[in-house]
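Go through this chain.

——
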Amino acid sequence: SGLGSILYKGKKTKLLFLLLLFVFLLSIPYFKLLVIIFSPGIGQIFPLSRVILVIFLISLPISFIDGMLIASIFSHKGISPARVYLFDAVGSLVGGGLSLVLSGVIPAFSQVALLGAVSMLLLIILGKLERWYAIFAVLLLLFSPFAGKLTVSLDKMYWRGYDIAVSETRYGKVTVLNQSGEYSLYENGRFVSVSTDRTAPEVLAHLAGLSARNVNSICQIGGLFSGVSAELEKYHPERYTIYEQDRGLVRFGSGFFTIKQERVTFEDGFYGLKRSNDRFDIVLLFASNPTTGEVNRFFTREFFNIVHKHLRRGGTFEFALTFSENYLTNEEKFLLSSIHKTASSVFPSVIIVPYFSTYIFLCFPEEVDVDGLVYRVRENFHRIDGRTRFFSAAGIDYILDRTRIAEVKNLIVPSPINSIAAPVAYLFGILEWERLSGGAILRPAVRLRPNTLIAGLILLSILALILGRLISGKTFRAFWAIFLLGLSGISFELLLLYLFQSSFGSLYWLVGLLSSGFMVGLVIGNRLFTKLGLKLHGILLSLVLATIILVLARLFLPVLIALPPTFFSVLVYLVLIIAFAIPVGGVFVSSAEYFSHLGMTAFGRLYGFDLIGSAIGSLFFGVLVLPILGAGNSLFALTGMLAVSILFFF
């Protein structure tokens, strides 16, 4: 979008809008085809470099034409740049609101067709477009109900060789693949379970069931389709609670997997367990490796403290990480060590049991060594009421082999504790992804100390200010301010989205609401700064306001992290997002007025600098700064960059 608004010099607004609408309609099949073309194959790692390329190619047509469209509107005489920016923000607000309402209700491709029709009708009504254009809106509305079938057809093309069933819920997309009676369940592209796996469920269930002093009460987070609950039922527990957030996943998956839905509590496991007044003999966590912000929160000290509080004496907390069977890379060692150190900071005893490619963590609220664990498992084996196909008394010595357990312990290296505020496990996941992709961009940056990275970001800001002043004179202050606030705005929004996800467990259906909040702030900032008419002083005021908000966010960061998933918490995040967006919206208006005062018309360039700053901030901050620095230091770095810009403003 930034490049389109900077490079385009024409005035063909209507033609660009129709072109944008056409490309918008083709976006879903275009995206699917790109994934099919660039995918390395089913079950293989999608290289990080290729992911970035596909994302760029996906967004390029729509965003570039969108930038050209904005630039063409700016070029018309008599049109206020502030008014154009206002309508851009209002349109984004409407789009975000509609996505909130429609998520999980109709398929994504149908949403695209419906939104396209709404956009066309609004332009006919508000933009006084010729009435015959309404035929495009009618065609889109008629096509909308059938658009989802096209998505399924493209999914079948990607998963060729499989029978496929797809469902969309408010938390994302659920896919079941069937090959010769073997069902594999995926949620948002993440593997959940396979119907034919019998060995791992037995080992996981009975290691937990036999290592605990009693099995009267069990809490299971995730893993509903894993088959573990069927094995633990053999202990006849009095109370068995399984937390699962997505009703749509359970409803859809139950058509292919055998489960007991009466055991399920439809709530996020993190806060469901936190709010519970019960204590449990066994707590089991089923989650993939913490390579995303959503999953990472279950492997933090905050969650481990919650488990410890709800675990009875003599109880067992079990979870697992998955690596290669015979060799761990440096990144995997760091991840294993970080989670081990995090668990050990809460539980007196943590034993890692290697079982092929699965590293099973058994955490106890009292001192238990390997010999004591083996004794417990042997003494309690009679508890199992029913047959086991793979887990036997004779196989205990193999599963709990002391030599292999000691070898895993020797893999532990010094690592930091994983927390919500400092998601180091998330960083290790990104590094491992990059290593498997054959890249070497992020690893050198990780070696930097946090203070070095913060100082480097501030020094880069100073250097940019000095060079910009020498090249462009005083006008550079406006360009730099709008670039930096674009970068800071998207970075702050990403940080809040990450923290929000840590509280609510999912962003899928609420991301539209939160993004709309940012647009509300842009609208308010636009109107407020237009009335103030401060020009150059408005740019300075925007920088000062943004700095104050970041300082306040840093001071109240512990409160934000501790917020429960309630309506009040949603309001808190919305207020913060709206508040920071006000100076972001205001700086564009003030810069445009300042340029008009100087007799300049570089409004397209201003808009381009705003979007390029946002693009750099979203990639750089989300992938590198937040995982390395953590939430607190990231806010400090952004505050430093803004503060330096304020000083150089004079």
The first strand starts at residue 163 and ends at 169. The chain has 26 helices and eleven strands. The longest helix spans residues 603-649. The CA atoms of residues 329 and 625 lie 23 Å apart.
